[in-house]
Amino acid sequence: MNNNPISKAMLLAAGLGTRLKPFTDKHPKALAVVNGKTLLQRNIEYLQQFEIRNVIVNVHHFANQIIDTIKVNKGWGSNISISDETNEVLETGGGLKKAAWYFNDTENFLLMNVDMLTNANLNEIIDEHFQSKALATLAVTERTSSRYLLVDDNNRLCGWKNTTTGEQKLPRACNTLHTKAFSGIHVINKKIFELIHQEGKFSMIDIYLSLAAENNIQCFNYSNTKLIDVGKPENLITAETMFQ
After folding, report:
1. CATH architecture of structural domain 8-242
2. Average pLDDT, the chain
3. pLDDT reported for residue 127
């Protein structure tokens, strides 16, 4: 029996993966391998642990390699749809908006970067999402980063800052600000599609910042879990020591 109220997810796999060169000169980053399994397979199987077996994957860079791999492996037991961004990569926000049709029959869904590997218990962030009645709940950790989400004492999103450039956006005034690093996992209510007015190429973080003042966007701390962004060659090596 499926006790998880979320049954659908999207894996963001359309990016050029420039940080993973030279591998991505000939392959999409989703097919980078950690201990014999591609990042795509690992995250499809990760979602299956939480009874999420309906997944849409967006593709752009070497799109046919991803499509062929899914077909050959019969989706590793999941029902996988494709959102084709071959003509133009749309970033995280534009990519999700293009795939909005896939979520017509569900109230809430999960969005995840294909190059993020974790052992986090998704049921925890899903429970928090429902309890807080948030528009979106974002996984974060307390790690060093150049870009941070800014949250209040109740973990509600207030803004964003870039410590390298000094740029800061604070759409929602908060008395206390805590810095959290975003971890590429979102639980989202489909009401968000009614509120996205941007067109073409744009990021989900920009969407959240544009909505933060009038909508409850929560952050959920996963600092005590295994989690790694496998976007760089050295992190692929590290990931092999973390995930068997």
Report:
1. Alpha-Beta Complex (3.90)
2. 95
3. 97
The number of residues making up the chain comes to 244
Is the CB of residue 11 less than 8 Å from the CB of residue 5? Answer: no
Below-70 pLDDT ranges, the chain: 1-3
Residue type, position 108, single letter: N
With contact defined as beta carbons under 8 Å apart, do 161 and 148 qualify?
Answer: yes
User: In degrees, to the nearest 5, what angle opens at C-alpha 111 toward C-alphas 147 and 141?
Assistant: 40
Question: Under a CB-based contact definition with an 8 Å cutoff, are residues 230 and 117 in contact?
Answer: yes
Find where tokens 């926000």 sit: 93
User: Over the stretch 95-108, which tens digit does the pLDDT of each residue have?
Assistant: 999 999 999 999 99
pLDDT at 3: 67
Q: Quick one: tokens of 48?
A: 């299956």
Closest to 56 in 3D by CA, of 124, 104, 128: 104
CB-based contact 11:45 (threshold 8 Å):
no
Which residue is associated with the tokens 């752009």?
60
DSSP string spanning 134-171?
-SEEEEEE----SEEEEE-TT-BEEEEEETTT--EE-S
Question: Looking at the whole model, is its pTM more than 0.70?
Answer: yes
Q: State the alpha helices, DSSP H only, in 49-83.
A: 63-72
Q: The tokens of 90 are what?
A: 């749309």
pLDDT at 126: 97
> Which residues fall within 8 angstroms of residue 23, CB to CB, at 6 or more apart?
17, 29, 32, 233
Token pair, residue 79, equals: 């029902």
Domains in the chain: boundaries: 8-242
Which pLDDT value is given to residue 144?
87
